[in-house]
Each structure stands twice: as C-alpha cells, then as structure tokens.
Amino acid sequence: MSNNLNLKLRIWRQDGPDAPGAFLDIEADDISRDASFLEMLDTVNERLLGDDIEPVNFPHDCREGICGTCGVVINGQAHGPEKATATCQLHMRKFRDGDEITIEPWRARSFPVIKDLVVDRSPLDRIIEAGGYITAPTGSAPDANDIPVPKDVAEASMDAAACIGCGACVAACPNSAAQLFTAAKLAHLNVLPQGQPERWKRTEAMVETMEEYFGTCTNHGECHEACPKEISLDFIAFMNRDYIKAKIKNRSLASQAR
Amino acid sequence: MAQTISRSDSRGRVKPLRKRGKELPWPANLYQTAVGKKYIMALTGIGLLGFVVVHMIGNLHIYQGPLAVNDYGEALRDLGGNLVPRTFLLWTLRVGLTALFVLHIHSAWSLSRMSEASNERYQSKRNYIAANYASRTMRWTGPIILLFLLFHLADLTWGWWLGSTYVRGDIYHNVSESMGSIPVAIIYIIANVALAVHIYHGTWSLFQSLGVNNPHYNGARRGFAAGLSVLILVGNLSFPILVQTGLINENNRTTPIANSGDVLAPLSSSTVLEVGS
Ligand code: FES
Fold it and tell me: Is the pLDDT assigned to residue B275 strictly greater than 50?
C-alpha cells in the first residue's frame, strides 16, 4: 500500500474540563488517502484500543456535513485547510505523506473542553433559546404558499439557514466572538414574513445573550473563512443594523404598552 | 414572548462570562452592549476621519507659502467671523473632537477587554486566513496614534520642545523648525504610517459595524478604505519629507508653489498679532 500516508499526529488529550491537557504524539502509518479525516481518527483509535490505550474522544455524528457536530482545529485552522468543508467532509488526500498534523479542540472561554477534542457548545443553544423561534398557529396544517415570500427573501433566508451551528466561527475568531452564528440564526428568521412578529425582541435577546458568553467582533473575517457553509459576513452587518433598530423600536413599543 | 426554557436551571451548564446589568434609558443603553459600542466606535470613527481629512487638506496651505498657511491658521481662530467671540467655534470643535476621541478610545478599550475575557489561547500555532496586518494591529496602531497626537500637540500647538524657537501663530516657521530635526521627522513618518494602517481597517470595518451593507457596493468598500488611507498617508507624509528635503525652508521661506509675493519675513513673537489683521 505504497499510496497510503504515514502521518505524525499531535492530538490534544484532556481527561476532563478541569484536568490539564497536553498534546499526544502519535505516528499514524498506512492511512488511506480515501479516508475522511474522522475515518483517519477512527483508524487511529482502533490501533490505540489494540494497545490498551483509551481512544481519542472527538465530536461527530452525521459525517455528511449537515449536523454540525464535528469540528476540530487542524493545523491552526478550524475544520482544517479545505474551504467550505466540515471536518467530516475533509479527506486525507488533502494531506501529503509525512505531514505533521496538529489537532486541537475549539477554544473559547465559553466552550469548555469536556474530553479530548470534545467541547461543550451549549452557549450556542442559549442564544437559540433566547429568540430562535417564531410564533405559529398550531392545529391543522396551513395551506401551502399561504404566506407569499419573495424569491430573493427566501434565498437570503436559506443562505442564513445553511448554518449548521458547528461553532467554527467562534473557534476561528481571534476574539472568540459568535457573531457569524448569531447573525445567521437571526437573519434566517428576521428576513421572512413569519419571523416579523418577534423580530425586534428576538434581535435584542439573541444579541445580548451572545454577549454574555462571547467576545466582540473586530471584522477580521476569519469566521467566514472557517465556516463550512460559507455564511456571509453581510449577515453580521444585517444583525448590527437590526440590533440598533431593535433598540429604537422596542423602546417605542414599550412606551405604547404603558 | 412565547414560553422559553427557564434560564434558572443551571445544572451543568456553561456559566455566562458576564451578566447583563440594569438597562439605562435610551440612548445610553446602546453603550451598554458590544454591538452598540461598535456602533458608537464607528460613528466617532467617521467624525475623526473627517477631522483627519480636513486637517490634512488644510495643511496643504503650506505649499502656498508662509503667508497663506499663517492666514489659514488665523482663519481657523476667526471661524464664525463677527457672529461669535473669536476662537469660540474653534474651541467648540476642539471640545467636540476630544469627546469623539474619548468615546472612540473608551469603546475600543472596553471591547478588547471583553474579547480578551472570552478568549482561550490555542496551544498550537494559529493559521490566519482573512485577518490581515491592519486588522490585527488595530490595538497597537490605536495607542501609537494617541501617543503621537499628544506629541504633535506638545510640538506644534503648545510648542514644548521648540521652546524659545517656537513662535505662536507662525505655522510655517514652527513646522519647518520642528520637522527639520531628523528624529522628529521620523516620528511623524512612523505615526502617519500607523494612522494609515489604522484607517484602512477602520474604514472598511465601520461599514460592517453600522450595518451599511448593500451587495451592489460591498466590493467597493475595501477599495474605498485603501484609497482613503493612501490619500491621507501621501498628504501627511509630504510635510516632513518636504521639510527634510529643504523644499520647505525656514531660511529663505520658500515652498514649492508659492509666489514670491507671498513670501513673508520670519515673524518674531512681538509681531505675531498682526498676522492676518
Ligand atoms: S459530523 Fe455532522 S457535520 Fe460533520
């Protein structure tokens, strides 16, 4: 199998949130070029098991780039060197024989390490809880096309909804900001007619929850580069504009209610 | 709002890094959040950019000769004519500018504190793709500009270093005396390069922070930022360079484009009040 890769891995190992972590050097020989990055880790884990060493914990689920569970920092880049690709869709043919590959978990103060490469991304759920929903009548199914949505608007919403919530934007951001995630989740609903009733409350609540956990945006653009779904920075501008509008609208709405 | 999961259940949850304080009345509440602070930073940035551009263009009067540039200084003090007391509008502008600086610096400082508190260092080397030199040095170029601003005020407004050679109101004399010294010229050059780098990222960034975003024009934002910072850089660097090359020269009071009629004898401290009268 001369076509296979011999790699030098440096993998972050950490027993728990409070345990000190360190890199473990592993020689990973004879790795198929057709393997995905996660399959490569599977192979490594099989071998570790054979040697009675605890396998490396890493996050994964669908392995087809749609669930947002996977994600590690590979050679200093969230989701590795290939653009618009989640870790599970990254293939070993992108690497060369003899490469040294450093694998680290996402790092942000609000993403504590659970074990090895697995981090707790639940602060992203807190942001969704704060406003990532709409009010819809329950009961019988609504008629299709009941609410007309202009094509451009539907497309913009879909572009935002492509976010799989993996957290690579936070991991890639030098400020550990969650702007791209929050902006995508906001825009997904805020541009649609169905999202209008809660638009201003949602914007305020989600942005302010985000700021409880994450850093601030300095417009580097690293998030967009790391994003497996190539969510546009334009959504961040949209969020900033909606936030200022929300502050004004919520104030006048509150005074109406009084 | 609709029912949400109770936030009080915090078993095993990641704790927020910071708590929202009590909300102040509008518009002070904008300054309580990071997105709002960025908005203020962008607005004050626009004001400061306006100042930098006008300051640079105004200083180009030095190319028209000592008389023209000293008249320009006098015109600034006389802003508003007889409608307001002399130097009243100038001082209003100065106070306004100081307020812009204070807000710009304070928001920058508190936002970077917030980011630092949210950051966990990577143990291996980062590989940045989009972040450029300008964006990553904002927290360095900013303080450099502030220090330079203080130096510049002490140099040409208060005349601290020039001492007895400083002649109040004789801009031409002071500029050529100050920038004639090589270390001072180097300080001006370094500071203005830092300023241009800061303005490059700041100008592109402010569109994002203000949410000024239109797919038709987005491509032009980087170009606009680059053009503006180069314009300011060239204008501002020309002064120390022309003094150093002797094209602006105190002894024969020449400038590249001045008419001989504009050339004025050096002022002494006692004659300064006659300028422009
Ligand atoms: S495992 Fe689901 S996106 Fe990678």
Answer: no
pLDDT in tens, B164-178: 889 888 899 999 999
Q: How far apart are CA A123 and CA A127, in angstroms?
A: 7
Q: Read off the amino acid at residue B211.
A: G
What is the residue extent of each domain of chain A? Answer: 4-115, 121-257
Q: Does domain A4-115 have CATH number 3.40.50.880?
A: no
User: What is the CA(A63)–ligand 1 centre distance, in A?
Assistant: 4
A246: closest chain B residue by CA: B30
Question: The complex's ipTM?
Answer: 0.90
Closest residue to atom 1 of ligand 1, CA basis:
A63
Cα A67 to chain centroid, rounded: 10
CA distance B87 to B94: 10
User: Which of B16, B130, B213 is facing A234, going by the closest CB pair?
Assistant: B213
CA dihedral A171, A172, A175, A180 (to 10 degrees): -90
Give me the domains of chain B, ranges plus CATH numbers: 33-276 (1.20.1300)
Which atom from ligand 1 is nearest to the alpha carbon of A71?
A: 4
CA distance B10 to B129: 37
Q: Looking at CA atoms only, how far is residue B238 from chain A in angstroms?
A: 31
pLDDT tens figures, B100-158? 999 999 999 999 999 999 999 999 999 999 888 999 999 999 999 999 999 999 999 99
The pTM of this model reads: 0.91
* Span from the CA of A178 to the centroid of ligand 1 (angstroms): 19
Architecture per CATH, domain A121-257, reads as Orthogonal Bundle (1.10)
**Is A129 close to B29, i.e. CB distance below 8 A?**
no
